[in-house]
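Honest question from a wet-lab person: if I give you the sequences of every part of a complex, can you actually get the arrangement of the whole thing, not just the pieces? Trying it with mine:
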Amino acid sequence: MTVLILDNEAVQALVTRHHPKFEIVVAHLESHARRGGQRQLPDAVWVPTTVRVEAGWDRTDPSTAHANRLNLRDRPLDSDRANAAARLVQLHGVSPADAHIGAMVETLGDEVVIVLTSDPKDIARVCPPRSIRIVRI
Amino acid sequence: MDRLAALDRIIELLDAPEGPTVNTSMRLPDTLREAVALAVGALDLAPSTTTFTADAMRTELNRVVLRAGLDALYEEYPDARPTLAQVTLARAQQDGHPSADEPHTIERAVGALGAARPGVELDPDDVLLWIDAQRAVGA
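Yes, you can. This is the full assembly:
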């Protein structure tokens, strides 16, 4: 399975129709949707809830209804993952949203993980050395 | 329930914590049922046929819901539909393809492939394979 994770600016672009990177992020979602083959099958697109907070995306806001329909799934932090994210913040001085992504990636198995981000350096710092693909938008 | 309301409800259900299970009276071809039982029992591909079936349904739902969501987006905003070249560039970046930083190469390949196979619906992988083949021939 292939998991697509959205960082702050990717979310902001998607919920704001006239954002300059809206089309870029939609093209990435379209690419994800067209994946085939057993290992490459698309899983849902994940949005860590801390990323959603940072991006200011309130799902009850009617102006973001189009984004709600794209199966962008919330990934909250449980207690263990919150501890892991807190450690990443202390260790690397990254934002809570980036630390949430790192803590989330730690729990994944053999999925192919792709992170869409405008800050590849911070994502590379918080994600464990595994087969994660970081795509700059 | 209209299409968009159904889509909203499906996503809400997929996002909700899994509650109690229910028995269903789903009718399956006998051969398919036996094949799944063997995949679980003999190949150990899942803990149970129930898990196997539920996982397969969840995977397929994720796929079709994203597809339906994108189609709804393009219906509302027709100019949001990306071109094949844009989708291929995104795929190249996601997969670390050598042409990930070469949008013009991808655009040329989309044009050449479209001319070679008029009327055929092309996929990003077709375009990237074409580029790989052209490079191999030119090497």
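Two things worth pointing out. Chain B has a mean pLDDT of 91. The first helix of chain B runs from residue 3 to 15.
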